[in-house]
Design goal:
Blueprint (H helix, E strand, L loop, with lengths): L1 E5 L3 E8 L3 E7 L17 E8 L6 E11 L1 H5 L1 H17 L7 H15 L4 H15 L5 E5 L9 E4 L4 E4 L14 H12 L12 H18 L5 H13 L1
Parallel strand pairs: 3-5, 6-8
Antiparallel strand pairs: 1-2, 2-3, 4-5, 7-8
Helix pairs in contact: 2-3, 2-4, 2-7, 3-4, 4-5, 4-6, 5-6
The structure holds zinc ion.
Length: 240
């Protein structure tokens, strides 16, 4: 998930592990030239490792086994920025040692899809949406929060934390007035299985609306403002 220099020659590296959730490892000598595991602890690596796990202390990696790299993510600053933001979000949402094989898999497949050329903005949105239940603020996207209907025009109410149908738009004067397509994707993203995504294409206008929907929830409602997100915004502004 990230690495940071520690003392003169060492490094701390955080992995999202399948067995123990996010976990910090101490790597003695990792900053020295000719460090034998240098390639195995690069950012955007994945694989199996043996090590010593300590519950409350730093853990150690002993041997890497079959380590691979997401090469496109490593080599493309734009993909890199999305992948880094996703991992920072997970780092924010999960305490160290809080195990979730489900989220280990979501992260694994998200990075794999981004590396394979699937739109990273959309993969990020799916993670952002599904992560809201981990953060304890899952929106109701199955149907209207008042009557449950999903066959009428729907809009999103921030104050109610979910959808309203057109019969109940009057329950929130400040409903977001989102486009139909945006609502369609929000509902789809909430139930989609990331491991099964083959391709997903969303037009630019809808992508913009989705981006501002999640910015509003994460930054204004949850107060989560990450440096990696600022960097991502800068890159996107530069691109346009
Ligand atoms: Zn309703």
């Amino acid at each position: 998930m990230y690495r940071k220099n520690y003392r003169e020659h060492d490094m701390l590296v955080k992995f999202f592990t399948a067995e123990f959730g996010p976990k910090m490892f101490f790597l003695r000598g990792a900053r020295r030239k000719n460090y034998k595991m240098a390639a195995d602890i690069l950012p955007f690596s994945y694989g199996s490792y043996t090590g010593n796990i300590k519950k409350d202390l730093l853990s150690y990696i002993v041997n890497p086994i079959d380590v691979q790299h997401y090469l496109n993510i490593s080599n493309d600053i734009y993909l890199n920025a999305y992948a880094t933001y996703i991992m920072n979000l997970l780092d924010t949402a999960f305490d160290d040692g809080k195990t979730s094989i489900d989220w280990f898999n979501k992260l694994f497949y998200s990075l794999r899809l981004i590396d394979a050329g699937i739109d990273p903005a959309i993969i990020t949105n799916i993670i952002e949406l599904q992560l809201l239940s981990v953060l304890g603020v899952a929106p109701e996207l199955r149907g209207c929060m008042v009557c449950g209907r999903s066959d009428l025009n729907l809009d999103y109410s921030e104050s109610m934390g979910g959808l309203l149908c057109e019969n109940h738009f009057d329950r929130d004067l400040y409903r977001l007035r989102l486009d139909k397509k945006t609502i369609f994707y929000l509902r789809k993203f909430s139930i989609i299985e990331i491991s099964k995504i083959k391709n997903i294409k969303v037009n630019n206008q809808t992508k913009k609306e989705l981006r501002s929907f999640f910015d509003n929830i994460y930054e204004n409602n949850l107060g989560i403002k990450l440096k990696s997100k600022n960097f991502l915004d800068q890159i996107n502004n530069f691109k346009i």
